[in-house]
Amino acid sequence: MLANHKGEIPLVVLLLPFLLGITLGLNFSAANLLIWALIPLLLSGGCFVLLNLTYSKLSVYKVRWLGGLLIHITLFFAGWLSVILHTQLNKDNNFSKQTATKLLARINNEPTIKNGVIRFTATVEQTESGNKFAASTGTLVIAIKDSLAGRLEYGDKLLIPATFTTIDPPFNPAEFNYKQYLAYQNIYHQAFLFPGQYRIVSRNNGNPVIAYSLKTRQHLVNKLKRNMLDTSAMAVASTLILGYKADLSQELLQAYSKTGTIHILSVSGGHVAIIYLILNICFSFLGRYQRGQILKAILIILLIWAYALLTGFSPAVCRAAVMISLIIIGTTYSRYINTLNILAASAIFMLLYNPLWIVDVGFQLSYLAVAGMVVLQPIIYSWITTSNKWGNKLWAACSVSIAAQVITFPLSALYFHQFPVYFLASNLFILIPAQLILFVGIPFLVLPDIPFISGWLVWILEQSILVMNKVLIIIEHAPFASIGKIWLTTGEFLLLSLSIIGLFYFLFDKKRWILTTSLVAILLVSLHTSFKRANEFGKDSITFLNLRKHRGIVFKQGDKAIILTELNPIDRNYQYSIQPYLDSIKVLDTAVYTLDKDIKSPFVMKSRNLIQFKNKKILIIDDGLVVNPLSSKLKVNYLYVTGNPHVSLNKLNENFTYDMLIIDGSNSSKHITDIVQQAKALHISYYILKGNKSLTIASN
Q: Does pTM top 0.90 for this prediction?
């Protein structure tokens, strides 16, 4: 639904300066900036009120743009101020600013168990120091390695030691920035606890509605586990219907991601829209009565929010519920509604509650997808006209999928670094199974067990999911199923977005300058990516990775790389810390060796502890190194100290000359301290990987 004039979409126009203000706040949110946001907000807001009071007396109507300018300035600074006020670190009573020995924290989400460790986030309500409690605030991530911790639930209050640490930043190139991800959720600290380090003070102190929601969802998940034989089908059912992702395997996630159907596993607007259509059909008979339309609207809105309750009130479902509720209210009273206006209204409501949701990937993708379907789908749909009823329905479904995929492509590429080639086929395929899963899954879960009927419902549910999974896995392994290793810079992302929006706007308005701008943007993206590719191909380098207790060295020549590490390529740590770096530097051919293996390759030679790469030599200093006196000193560039070797630098200096000492994270803190003290006494240059970013050295 396109707008012919900005007057049809006033909330969209007002949302833009508010978003810009929030964006500024994300980069400048310190408490001392509060006054810089508050004073302009009060001045512009006051001038706007004064303008309206003296509108006729001062004949300001002759300057029509003045009121709009003032309200835009007010909203801009309101957005900035909302972020500053919402940032937990700006509060004086944040637990990280108080001296304490213990913390009283309340679990504020559903604990999850993985590899014997239970994890959850908790809100600190009080700090204890010398048997004195003080009110506090702030959230931290808690991990407990204790089998008894499995009994912990949402709302439980714990007394824990105040031995928290800050979240680590990414140490390796292209590694996921977990620290920033949590900071956008107002979480900056973490604590790792063992048995006996925590005590349950009280239970069930959370929001009663949320507590009921989570318990109900867990009860329904358990019902799926009892009745479904296939664990993968059960995991997809609990994820797709209830938003419970704890049982979903990495293999299934990858299959849905590479086929462009990952959105179906995120309970959001699409699911709510399907439920709305079902309810609309079920209650259509109420339209015959005088007050039937109002009753129908009330029932549908209540049931949609009841479904939101079953999913734990996830932000995505709440966004969709707010938007559909507004649409239902408008259509019930026969009001003309521009969907973009409703979309903007729901965004304003959500961001007023939590401005940091603007950086949530799900928030961004869901709003972009809906906006794409509203604005671009009519343009795409107009490309093909057919009189065939089913052909028309098929093309309508295709146009929706294309619109959503096209508008979200730059953002998806920025975050996920891939593009599903067969997205249209896979999305068209899952339309029927996804609807069938919701049609039979929700009745099966909410109705009591009914002989024969419940059995048929769960059988249909399980078989639908198994068929959907098998077909998506086939599509995932088809030739050229996805284009990977897409690493966009912020500038490339903006240019790519500009080119896509411009091309579609040209199809709508046919102005030549719009087409020229889009083509120039595409050209700039192409030139920049080509330059990056050529630059990476011509760059040879050695990268000493920080893999904490593991070891890792990457030798790169062109698009080939040799990796020295004990990690297996399918290991989670390898996929998290090493693979993104290889993808970002366009490496196509890799070989992985452990540090005890000799290597003979065109660009890396390794014999025992000595490595030769181009014009650089590296000597690995570990417990396996035997230092025998040499007739003359061996010249190397780097000594790589790993695994707490029992050797002194004085003895090493008798046999080797080198430029730098590199100490990895597999060494203990005490051993690192001893080596650093020796290095300082001997005036030796050194670099510690533990707790620091990886070290990349060019070698040409």
A: no
